[in-house]
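User: I'm putting together notes for a lab meeting next week and I want to include a structural view of one of the chains we've been expressing. I don't have a solved structure, so I'd like a prediction I can at least talk through. The sequence is below, exactly as it appears in our construct file.
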Amino acid sequence: MSKQNNNNSDPLEDFFRKKSQDYNIEYREEDWEKLEARLDKADQIHQQRRNRWIAAAVIALLFAVLSYITYDQQVKINKLTNQLNSKEQLSPPGKSPSGEGPNTVKDEKHHNQIVEEHEQPTNPPPTTEKKQLKSQDGLALDDEQKSKKTDQTNKQKLAISAKDFAEKDPQVAKISTGFNDLSLSISTIEPISSNTMTHKRSSNQASSPNLQNSRQSSRFTFGFLAGPDLSTVGSISNFHSPGYKLGASIEYDITQNLAVSVGIQRTTVHYRASGNQYSPPQGYWSYGVVPNETVGTCILLDIPVNVKYNFMFFKNSRLYASAGLSSYIMLDEDYQFNYTNYQPGLKKRWHQRTGTVHWISNATLSVGYELDFTDKLSLRAQPFVKVPLKKVGWANVSLYSLGSMFSINYKIN
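Assistant: Thanks for the context. Below is the predicted structure for the 413-residue chain, given as structure tokens.
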């Protein structure tokens, strides 16, 4: 039976069986590289979309936090102003907002009039020609002597009345000692004269330059900053993976609202570039074949010079806008090249520590929020956009950057 079944086998099936056994599949590296490039491109598109959503979410969250803090500060300020207005309305009409009575206000007015009379000489009557020759200092001394005599007579009357009450009632004897102590304390008080007032004014005028110098001496602020960085080539899109910034800055306050700063930041950037956006030196490509995509990773020093303006103030915080120019020093450049149709001999990577300097290569625009913890310590959050002014790097690319800086600042005395 077995022989009969073998004789009755299908010749077509035997043909395919024999050919499959004899056929040897040839390995071609190019096909595997094409397949790998297609898979990598699909992963890149997926990662690119994810990075866009992450960047949009971070920026939206940052602006939401800044908006909430601004709104909360404004509400607190409105509450405080309403409380102050209500207290002023509830105060009695005879009292000032500081709680002083009408007598004190009258006494102050009377005192100011007396001081003005001492400071400004009055017109003497025409009959007293000798008094007209007296100086203002002589008038002030006469007034001081008169006031001292009146004070002494008042003290004597007060002491006599206290003794009379003490003789009549022994309980009042204790009070008399208090009057004596009071008379001693009154004797130490000196009357106000024009000389003392002018001396106080001169001392205040002499101390005012010191106050200005103390304010001017605290205009420098040192900051330590860090934050994420998203970079791309050609336009603000097609981001690859986030890098980071880490550095320091020093700031000088020109006025209360205007300041100038300079800093240095170590920055790591990642980006993707198409064939027409990546321009290495002429003749670099093997066989004249340009890669379809270049993936770059660069480490550089960013040296920004910025001008900051505070445009909105709150109780312990403020909003500000900043603009400036940046210069790049390329420390390390690493590029990988991807081809759609790879051929043996094509270049896959270029890596070198170049150290090239690109002065005033990018312009920076940003808006930030600053919160004061103490008089000297503060925290800043500052989203930024960097726009290229000229091409940078070994491959001459127009590098865009988008991110946010967070810094801790200390005011130097």
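A couple of points you could mention at the meeting. The radius of gyration is 43 Å. Helices lie at 2-7, 11-22, 29-90, 102-119, 129-132, 136-168, 171-187, 194-216.

User: Perfect, that's what I needed.
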